[in-house]
Amino acid sequence: MNVPQRKTLLIALVAIFFTQTWFVYSDPIGAQTRLSDHAIQGRGLWLKHNCQSCHQLFGFGGFLGPDLTNVASRFADSNGTRFDARLATILTEGSKVMPAFHLDREQRDKLASYLREINEAGVGQPRAASAITPHEHFSSIVQKVIPPAGWTDAEARGWALMEMHSCISCHLPNKSSSLQAPRLTTLVGVSGEDRVRKVLAQGSLEKGMPNFGLSADKIESLVQMLIRLQDADEGIRAGYGTVKGVSTRSLKDLPWFEYSR
User: Fold this and answer.
1) Average pLDDT over residues 20-31
2) Rounded Cα–Cα distance for residues 48 and 136 (Å)
3) Which of 36, 123, 228, 235 suits 24 as a labelling partner, its CA being 20 to 30 A distant?
């Protein structure tokens, strides 16, 4: 490469850098985001413990851990207990390469507020297509492999409870589960019915499983549906060969600097 070519390449790289910088820091949604006092205190904890050295928010930060922009959505449930339980486990006990920070309840609540409000501010990674969720995909496969018309009343109640508490979000029956939780379709066979009943009744916070406060009848319905899923395990896993339901978009619709929904 001769001197004029090198100069041209350098000018192009500098221009790209300043263009990207302008897009990022002139983003109107980011400028309008306002955090509550509780969340601001959580942001202080985020900075104090240097969380950004390993995790990203809106794609900015370290890459040793996952982007946490939308972690509150990934662990969402109707009352927020699932997200709180997972956060409590991670922050007090650590996980793999992440150290335990031994944060108390008040500190965890502040950090949770910060992450929830960041989650509402936008999405951390650009999305070029809209795909069905793992929960929707799993539901579709199950209802093809095991037609609901053949379910017992207990199994139907168990399935409704699984959907209500988003069990599939953590217990994917394939290798895509980022949480590496036991497969939903083999829980009873691997752990045994008694162990499953105990965990459903008490939870297992050290492994990120919250206590949902289920009655004995609900627990039994869940166990019956888990047994039914185990019998259909091979057919359900075979359904994960392809994912359908993805709609394409044009490049002009891609939110390259996606701070807004």
Assistant:
1) 62
2) 39
3) 36
* Each residue's pLDDT tens digit, 99-129: 888 889 899 999 999 999 888 877 766 555 4
What six digits make up the tokens of 34? 């306002």
Closest CA to 228 of 171, 188, 183, 169: 188
Among the listed residues 210, 148, 137, 206, the one whose alpha carbon sits nearest the alpha carbon of residue 177: 137
The first and second tokens of residue 98, run together, are 């992440």
Contacts of 191 by beta carbon, 8 Å cutoff, 6+ apart: 182, 199
**What's the CATH number for 33-121?**
1.10.760.10
Please list the alpha-helical segments (H only) found in the chain: 3-25, 28-32, 37-48, 71-74, 81-93, 105-121, 134-145, 153-164, 187-191, 193-202, 216-231, 233-238
Which pTM value belongs to this model?
Answer: 0.45
Answer whether 89's CB lies under 8 Å from 18's CB: no
Helix (H, G, I), strand (E, B) or coil at 94: coil
Residue 83 CA to residue 77 CA, distance in Å, equals: 8
Looking at the chain, the domain(s) classified CATH 1.10.760.10 span 33-121, 134-240
CATH architecture observed for domain 134-240 = Orthogonal Bundle (1.10)
Residue 169's H or E segment, with its range, is: none
